[in-house]
Amino acid sequence: MSALAKTRYFWRSAAVGLKHSPFVHFIAVTTIAIALFSAGLARGSARVLDNLLASLGGEVEVTVYLAPELGQDEAHGVRARVEELSQGQVTLVPPDAALERLRTELGDLGEALSELPENPLPAALELRVPPEQRTPEALQALAKELRALPGVSGVDYGEQAVERLTAIARALRFGALVAFVVVLGATVVIVAATLQLAIYSRREEIEIQKLVGATDRFVKAPFLLEGLLQGLLGAGVALLGLWAFGRLVGPTLGSLFAFLLGPGVAAPWVEPRLVLELVGAGCGLGLGGSFVAVGRFLRV
Amino acid sequence: MIQFFHVYKAYPGDPPVLSDINLSVEKGEFVFLTGPSGAGKTTLLKLIFCAEKATKGQILVGGRNIARIRESAVPYLRRNIGVVFQDFKLLPHRTVEDNVSFTLDVLGVPRAEARDKVRRMLKLVGLEHKADSFPLRLSGGEQQRVVIARALVNDPTILLADEPTGNLDPALTVEIMDLLTQVNIRGTTVVVATHDATLLSRYQKRTVGLERGQIVSDEDGVKAARRMVV
């Protein structure tokens, strides 16, 4: 018995199968391609969302208000301590600079500030938090530590905005995951149903194979290969679609949402990792569908 | 070669198809199974190549008890048994050569070797010139010869034929039966199910009569032929 001869037979038989029922296989390949294209789009969108969060996170600034009675040396001392605790970039904003900034921000109304008998603004430290500390939990913990420092009268970091953004991102990710699982499940069912049609049209061949002594594995192998080929073809079509989408629609989307997305939007939609993931998922879908389909036709 | 010991076959809710079958077929023997439609001939053949399982009793094929055979071992048993059907069971979209080669594909025989074997087998059944034809282009007799070639190409020790001439005219019937006789002379055990009495008188082989699922006669060829004439 030759394993090579059998392998050749399996591939030949799988190719004949694809040729034998082109429409049925076209439907299966298209279904896989649509599912993987959607998955690829979701993956790309998730990456854009990550970029968005990172860019908004970069704007998260923690303002540490210093006690009014603090002298300049003491303020520098607190600044060094804050730098040490946060590992971030700290800028000392003296009361005069703070008042001047407020005056500029208020525009015409800023003149009213001249009427004040004395500067009410305290000195403050503006802290740009490093990326790894931009989660709500890390920011909360950092704020708690900073509040406990001597010479600090208050800490503000836009707590609610950060929490909301993170919650939205989490919900979107979860929704995408659920949708992805549903689409994958539906795809396996559709692929299995179409493959069953293809297998049904070859039931006579299966019956004869079984009668002349073919094992179940031997009968299944070409159909599993057909599923695998469908998965590969589906993944190829999906990747081609994503590449075309990235080339044709990507730049337009990028310019439309440039104000939100910031850097990273120009990144290619088809990356090596995505190629591997979609090819793997395609093979899994094709094999899964054919595995489900082939089982019930083996009883002779 | 084939032994049945008190074999029964029944389907739930129906009377038994086979009852208390005791039968022994020796190696190299040629046996006719005869009887009216519904007598149980096809079921008996199906039990031999494990297309059906006996409800009760023991069946030995080549010394192996197939009443207790595991599902996974059935394909290996079938590789030693060639089966010829009345309705041919040929693949219409494959050539004669591919149809015959089908059995060897299952065994993983390399293509060149398979091609040689198939050509030799087609020569034996007189169809070497039709290797590239499609089955539907052949006559009934030629199609049945392709089936016989497919059944014999891997040199099985047993050949089972279920009404192999049922769809053929008298001339083609003789052609096919002569071929089965030749196969038997080469050493293959042949069991033919038929209800055609003229075959029994012409070929004078051991004849086992079945009626309503029971063996009612088991005669040598001459005796059976004589009874047919009377």
Automatic annotation (TrEMBL), chain A:
Which keywords appear in this protein's UniProt record, sorted alphabetically? Answer: Cell cycle, Cell division, Cell membrane, Membrane, Transmembrane, Transmembrane helix
ABC3 transporter permease C-terminal domain segment(s): 178-299
Segments traversing the membrane: 23-42, 174-201, 221-245, 252-270, 276-298
GO biological process annotation, one example = cell division
Signal sequence residues: none
According to its record, how does it sit in the membrane? Multi-pass membrane protein
Keyword Cytoplasm assigned to the entry: answer is no
Record's GO cellular component terms: cell division site; plasma membrane
Where is this gene product found? Answer: Cell membrane
Annotated ranges, domain FtsX extracellular: 60-155
Query: Per the record's keyword annotation, is Transmembrane included, yes or no?
Result: yes
Matching PANTHER family, A to Z? CELL DIVISION PROTEIN FTSX
Q: Which family does it belong to?
A: Belongs to the ABC-4 integral membrane protein family. FtsX subfamily.
What is the designated name of this protein?
Cell division protein FtsX
UniProtKB/TrEMBL annotation, chain B:
Cross-referenced PROSITE patterns: ABC_TRANSPORTER_1 (PS00211), ABC_TRANSPORTER_2 (PS50893)
One Gene Ontology cellular component: plasma membrane
- Name the keywords, alphabetized: ATP-binding, Cell cycle, Cell division, Cell membrane, Membrane, Nucleotide-binding
Q: Which residues form the signal peptide?
A: none
Localization recorded for this chain is: Cell membrane
Q: What does this protein do?
A: Part of the ABC transporter FtsEX involved in cellular division. Important for assembly or stability of the septal ring.
What do we know about how this protein assembles, alone or with others?
Answer: Homodimer. Forms a membrane-associated complex with FtsX.
This chain belongs to the protein called: Cell division ATP-binding protein FtsE
Identify the species of origin: Myxococcus llanfairpwllgwyngyllgogerychwyrndrobwllllantysiliogogogochensis
Biological classification of the source: Bacteria, Pseudomonadati, Myxococcota, Myxococcia, Myxococcales
